[in-house]
């Protein structure tokens, strides 16, 4: 069972902690329910740019002091941005936990966005964009969001555009934070050997002065989907393809059964149906996988593979054949049992990562208000029937619902 403690401070910030006695490392971070989908049309890429700028200066620290604070004691400081979340996090030896907590608080709430640093970091982000564009297997996955979600904010690239990133000034960051930051929509989460009482005492010490900020926000729901087929010629040597469509939202009861279906289809196991049918049997790809991303109001299924240009049509047909099997042929009892055991084993191993556990706890509190234990998730998996899976396959994986994005060599 996942034993954790949760406490809400007077200003609305929630503290979530799990004590793990056998570790010497303290993982912690602030997770904000704020991401690229919350940007206005003139703010594309601003959340991600903020992630970078948090390390570039606060009211009491310059960039070097921020970067050196934990690195000098063997720790790590990092951040990430997604469509719906922004996170600043760290990993340190337990004896440096307070130092880590104070620094994370400083960069999350007291960044000053020096104009000189903005100019330097602008170049870094433009190079990051160039790196992604030079990596077609990553670029095509990001661009597929735009194919499926079109003009909806979920379709925008987290990095923004060259034009938007080139124009941001200090007041753009300040306005974005003022309009979106809410103490009720952020969590400090930690996993370490420290008792909750110590974590709470430090939270009260460093977060008590943060004022209550309430910013009720209604995200624009994604509602209109039109399947598309889009092909781009690129200066590449291999054809790349993503196939997919919208899927179930984060709190949909069918989320876990669909996740099991996607795992069976193209999960990390070498025995996934796509890997066996396309790579092992025909040798057409090096990589083929299926992923399921969930958002508060929708989800996204994406199947990726890279192959020779002349094999693109054949490989696509093999993928569609596997999807058809899932729609038409119910799993036998042994197949169903194996699919369940494989997913439960993968989830249990994922929880062995204390860093991943810390992230999961924070996101679960923000999205659901509670944290499902492994046993609760296992119960959902165990209760899934073969009929459930075939019904879901027919609901989501119908061929007429699929979109296709192809990059082909020119």
UniProtKB/TrEMBL annotation:
Annotated ranges, domain Peptidase M16 C-terminal: 169-343
Peptidase M16 N-terminal domain span: 21-162
SUPFAM superfamilies hit by this protein: LuxS/MPP-like metallohydrolase
Annotated signal peptide: none
InterPro entries: Metalloenz_LuxS/M16 (IPR011249), MPP/UQCRC_Complex (IPR050361), Pept_M16_N (IPR011765), Peptidase_M16_C (IPR007863)
GO molecular function terms listed in the Swiss-Prot or TrEMBL record: metal ion binding
Alphabetized Gene3D superfamilies for the sequence: Metalloenzyme, LuxS/M16 peptidase-like (3.30.830.10)
Pfam families, per the entry: Peptidase_M16 (PF00675), Peptidase_M16_C (PF05193)
Entry's family note: Belongs to the peptidase M16 family.
Protein name stated in the entry: Putative Zn-dependent peptidase
Lineage, top ranks: Bacteria, Pseudomonadati, Bacteroidota, Cytophagia, Cytophagales
């Amino acid at each position: 069972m996942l034993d954790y403690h949760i406490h809400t401070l007077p200003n609305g910030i929630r503290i979530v902690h799990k004590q793990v006695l056998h570790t010497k490392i303290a993982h912690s971070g602030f997770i904000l329910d704020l991401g690229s989908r919350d940007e206005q049309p003139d703010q594309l890429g601003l959340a991600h740019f903020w992630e970078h700028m948090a390390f570039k200066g606060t009211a009491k620290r310059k960039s070097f002091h921020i970067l050196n604070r934990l690195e000098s004691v063997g720790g790590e400081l990092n951040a990430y941005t997604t469509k719906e979340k922004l996170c600043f996090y760290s990993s340190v030896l337990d004896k440096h936990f307070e130092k880590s907590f104070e620094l994370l608080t400083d960069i999350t709430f007291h960044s000053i966005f020096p104009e000189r640093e903005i100019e330097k970091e602008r170049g870094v982000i433009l190079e990051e964009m160039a790196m992604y564009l030079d990596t077609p297997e990553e670029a095509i996955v990001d661009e597929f969001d735009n194919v499926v979600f079109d003009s909806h904010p979920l379709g925008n690239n987290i990095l923004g555009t060259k034009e938007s990133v080139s124009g941001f000034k200090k007041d753009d960051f300040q306005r974005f934070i003022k309009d979106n930051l809410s103490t009720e929509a952020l969590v400090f989460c930690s996993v370490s050997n420290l008792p909750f009482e110590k974590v709470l005492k430090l939270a009260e010490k460093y977060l008590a002065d943060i004022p209550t900020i309430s910013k009720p926000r209604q995200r624009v729901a994604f509602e209109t989907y039109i399947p598309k087929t889009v092909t781009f010629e690129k200066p590449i040597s291999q054809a790349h393809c993503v196939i997919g469509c919208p899927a179930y939202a984060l709190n949909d009861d069918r989320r876990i059964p669909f996740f099991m279906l996607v795992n069976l289809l193209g999960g990390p196991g070498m025995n996934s149906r796509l890997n066996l049918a396309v790579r092992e049997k025909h040798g057409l790809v090096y990589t083929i996988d299926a992923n399921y991303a969930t958002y508060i109001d929708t989800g996204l299924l994406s199947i990726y593979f890279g192959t020779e240009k002349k094999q693109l049509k054949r490989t696509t047909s093999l993928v569609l054949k596997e999807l058809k099997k899932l729609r038409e042929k119910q799993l036998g009892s042994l197949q169903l049992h194996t699919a369940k055991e494989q997913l439960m084993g993968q989830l249990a191993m994922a929880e062995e990562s204390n860093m991943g556990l810390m992230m999961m706890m924070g996101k679960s509190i923000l999205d659901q208000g509670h944290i499902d234990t492994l046993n609760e998730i296992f119960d959902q998996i165990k209760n899934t029937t073969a009929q459930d899976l075939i019904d879901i396959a027919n609901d989501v994986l119908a061929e007429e619902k699929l979109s296709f994005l192809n990059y082909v060599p020119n």
